[in-house]
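hey can u check if this looks right to u? its 1482 residues, i copy pasted from the old doc so theres a chance i mangled smth
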Amino acid sequence: MDPPENNIPSSHDEETQEHRETLSQSHQEDGENEAVPLIESCTQAEAGPKVIKENAVRVAFLPPAEEADLPVSESLVQGDASYSADDNSSYNDDEADIDQDIDDALDEGYMGMECTLERGFSLNEAAIARDLRYERYDEVAVKYEKSHSFSKYQPSLKHFIPVRKSSAERDEMPIDSTGLYGFVSYSWITSLMWKAYKKGLKEEDVPICSKYDMCDYNTDRFEAMWNEEVKRKGKDGASLQRVVWRFLRTRLIVALTFFMITLIMGFVGPTIFMRFLITWLSTDEPVTTGIIWTVGLIFSEFIRIIIFGVVWSISYRTGVRLRAACLGLVYKKLMRMSSLGNKSIGEVINLFANDAQRIYDFVVLGPLIIGGPVVAIGGVIYILWLLGPWALFGMLTFLLFYPFQYGISRLTGYLRRRTVTVTDERVRMMNELLTCVKLIKMYAWEKSFASSITEIRKRERHLLEKSAYVQSISLAMAPTVPVIAAIVTFLAHIGAGYNLTAAQGMTVISYLLGNVRASFNMLRFSVRAFVEGLDSVRRIKSILLMDELEPYLKTPQDPDTAVVLDQATLAWDAVSSFKKKKNKKRRNKKDGITPADQLMPKVVDLKHIDVLFDLCLSIKKGELIAVCGGVGAGKSSFISALLGHMRLQSGQVYLQGTCAYVGQQAWIMNASFRENILMGEAFDAKRYYRVIYACNLTQDVGAMPAGDFTEIGERGINLSGGQKQRLSLARALYANRDIYLLDDPLSAVDAHVGSHIFQWVIKGALRNKTTVFVTHQLQYLPLCDRVVYLREGNIAELGTHSSLVEDNKEYAGLYRTHMETVENKEKESKTEETDAGGRQRQDSVISGGSSINGYQKNSPEKSPVKEVKKKPEDGQLITEEKLEKGDIPLSTYNWYIKAAGGYIISTLVILTFAANVGSTAFSSWWLSMWLSAGSGNTEVVVGNGTVISDNIADNPDLFMYQTVYGCLILVILGTSLIRGFAFMKTTLKASSSMHDQVFVKVFRSPMSFFDTTPSGRIINIFSRDMDEVDVRVPMTMETFLQNIWLITSSLVFVCLVFPHFLPFLVVLAILFLFIRSIFRIGIRDFKRMENVSRSPMYSHVSTTVNGLATINAYGKQEMFTKKFMVLFDENTCVFFLFNCAMRWLAIRLDLLALLVMSITAILSLILRGSVEASFAGLALAYAAQLSGIFQYTVRLSTETEARFTSVQRISNYTKCLASEAPAIIESKRPDSNWPKYGRISYRNVQLKYRPDTPLVLKGITFDIDSLEKIGVVGRTGSGKSSLGVALFRLVELAGGSVRIDGVDISVLGLEDLRSRLSIIPQDPVLFIGTVRYNLDPFEKYTDEAVWSALEQTYMKEKIANLPLKLNAPVIENGENFSVGERQLMCMARALLRNNKILFLDEATAAIDTETDSKIQRTLQEAFKACTMITIAHRLNTVMACSRILVLDDGKVVEFDTPRNLMANSHSAFAKMVEAAESSLLL
């Protein structure tokens, strides 16, 4: 047969040459550098008859020289099975060129490496710009140093210099260098607001976070204070509230001092200046007196506005600092833990999503709580002085409001805590759903999960309704209580026979409507912020007080010893992710509580569970120790014990040197392939490419769209199980550590690749390293220095392989069984495999091996990776989150209104606001009429004569005035309650409808959506955006609608009293609208950017929590913390700018509103005598309240629009996401017993994963008969997993058809199709819940059937020994079961379904040899009435199949019985078996 080189198109060499010519020479130095000792090159003289093939990266990475004298038969183990002694001379010729080839490749540049090396291997220009921006944080940042000197206040005090020249860099936050004028007026943000109006804002326009607001700086300060507190008071006595107070007390006291000044100015205006002005209107005093009172009134209000701006400036920065400090400290705490203990991932993400805002509100709004009592006490004293003791009746009304408001706040806090618990549960459930979405779809379990989410949401909505109703009552009462207080006060005062003048009445109304109403509104927000903030602080404290693992690793005294276990007993935390509050997580169809729920507290009470007992072992430096044992024997725990991730109950553990760790389930970051390997280490080109070769990743990298710059999705979504595991191994190898802890690293790869890795990595690169190698693959044990055989957490046997075989105990029996199996199965592979880590895969790259096809000898490439011209941007997988531009479209508001119940309902709700505000306004108007009527010209006897009375108590219509005025109390209260109830019902109906719509839409999306969308982005929709729509949008909108009617009533009064005001009103309205229309754009853009900046932070937190073991093992806590800090700072920056932009608008609108009051006061001055004093006073009182309320309302309109960005995001998901085919198509439903025979027919099937990707199945055609057992083999990328993708319709075909029993599956509903098929996945996926829930979520089967399935998969004994048996809890990711046990439970799940067609994705991977042979028998017996398709990297699993399907490059290469294929020595399958055989017969 011609060598493969002859079959390669001639264009390849031209492509390679062209590629090399285009690359720069920037890395010649890298090429010349000496390799790190980890990976040593081998000279030509040292090179023995080693075989290097694959699509040969000619990399000088060889096993030790002393092994070169091995006979040819043994050298086959280390290389190509098709290699023979005849090839020895040609091989040596090839080997001589290896070092030269890699050096040449490095000299010429590699895959565009020079473009992005400096920038952290980014994929595109936007990413490079982002990296540059992130680097600026390092340049700008300052380190926190504890100081007791006054100089620490210097940066803040500089803000009180009247004008400062800016010395900041263009991209730095301008506020740091602004003076008093800019600090008060927020003029430093004006340029950004203008830019937003003219061009719109982009990411690069936004300055980086202020160095004093950065997460790192504030976290260090907060952490130092917290540590002091814990040291002083102990963990139990430590108070986080006290630390928070210490953290912000200076700034808080200064802010409160300024706030008190604003309250004094607010008091002086109406009580002194306005009262004397109204009095002056009804006297003949000179005009100058009136001018003095008018100027005084205007000036006091101006000072109040300016000082209030300073209060917000100080509070905003204090808020962002505490927010950064608290969450930075939480993240650092997570970094010091090996697991989340009793917290779920959803709960942690929810803390970052929602508690961040509450901590900020706690600082900004909470302290303003003092305003209410101060204003109330001042008001009571003043009104008592003004009106006398009868006014106390009215004052009692609003003094009683305080305990009422306190009670409301306590109730709100209680309801909020309960709501947050349920929200945590919902977010956790969504996180689990997103992680396991592929399996859920293949099992057609959408309904089960949807019903669980719906049930949780129902409970959440119920609590939200209660909370919203309470809030609504509070909101309605705040503006009405002052009015009711005024009514009661005046009725009592007049009823006692006292007179009430216009000056007295309107002064009181002005004070109550202005100051008291404003302080009550503020009180409502501040009490809520205070209560919720304290609750958030408690939640944060619960994480900070979680037990960290006590370091127990000590350094051994003997310098030649690497590891010592001295009578060590170690434990795991018991069922660590279950808490009492999650007891109701899974419910049956009748919504009853399961037995597990009732019994769960018993489980929670368990502290630790011992899993390793009395271990005694000493490992010398450089020793290779193999660890083996059955499923659940404690192998992975043994590795965790050496990492320091367990709890040492007794004995000692010694470890000397740094560790590298390869987990049984590989942890992959959402970063480029190269970044995943480097993980923060410096790039050394020669070492890097040798690692790539050693881990057999050469061909994989060559096949990727952008080589090693290709972006890897979350959880390694676009890698196969084998690729993920080899990438994890490459990361460990590149890290160059002293001790290597490898937890079954060869499980996900085929025999040939496993052999390559064992020889080149474990026996080669790591020959001088201490290596602990956990494996089920017994063929490698003879080559290890010693073997540890574990049984039930004990070291049952320990010694060299030969001595243990001689002892003839359990280990010897296990090994003989293995060898007999190899011989009996025609010497095929007995490699154990499992998928590592991720829950989802794509692009058919499922098989672990780079080249299962050992027959591809002498591949043409001689450079480190296949030389094809690729652009880094080709490898971008995750789509950038779209940042919306322009106005919120009307369709978004329309969608919200329809979700709330339609236009009629919404109009009626708005009219309830009009009725409520109208009744309060009418009460003031009625009072003015009453005051204007005076005594009704009633004559009273004075002495001997009669005079017209000036006392309104003498009015003959007094009873009518009193009755109407008094009845208005009932009207006001009634309309308040109706309004609150109606608004709450409609807004919650809207948010619930939106949640249900977006949930269904996301869940029904095709797999391509989940492949290209980070889970953090989707979680952002269901956590923060839903929180906005549930709580903040209604709250903002309710206040906005109320204030709109208040402003309308105020302006109507002013215009009725002073018609001359109308022209001024038109001018002011135009000015208001101009300012708002321009600058709402900037505010809205900042809010959008803030929304988008959250997603990367959530994704990073989620990735971190999932990879804690790996991050801690490599000591990369600082790297991940630093990235979190930068992502948080990016969010802080736009969050702070959004709030400052709102205040920028507020202060300008306040000054414009001051014009309204000024014009009203001047008009009353000019028109003295022609307008009644009582009506002039009414106009002044309502104009005065406009000052605060006008700007607040305009700001609220902008804020409402900004908050509607969350509605828009949810709307976009609902409208723009593509959906899968319907679950059920009634007209196309198959028979109940379909498929009856299990015949499968593929006809010219073409498949691509997304429209912009190439075909992965290229017109394949084959038929499978009823009950046939088909084995599918092929190299990575050949299309094996894509057969299953097509069968389960995870992706719709690009062409052709698949038929089952003659039915074209493309016309069926997806639920009808998928529920009739079974799959046992390579990834063992378990859900949070109970064992029974995991096997039978729909409760279709009896307990007997479930026990029978567990018995057949050899799990019955394990489950029966658990305290709750079938109702025993399963924690997040099934972490309380070993990977092997999880795999067996997945198999039991498929046995229960008992479908006619079974798709087996290398399902016995994580299982020991003995159990595997039993399982194979179970599969043959239990599924003998099934058509079975088995994807295999292990050839022994397919040797007993009816026929073998060999795929290559998406095409069928061979399809025949194993006997016929083996009979043809030139067949692809025969060569694969030959390769595997020679690799394993050691």
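The chain has a mean pLDDT of 75.
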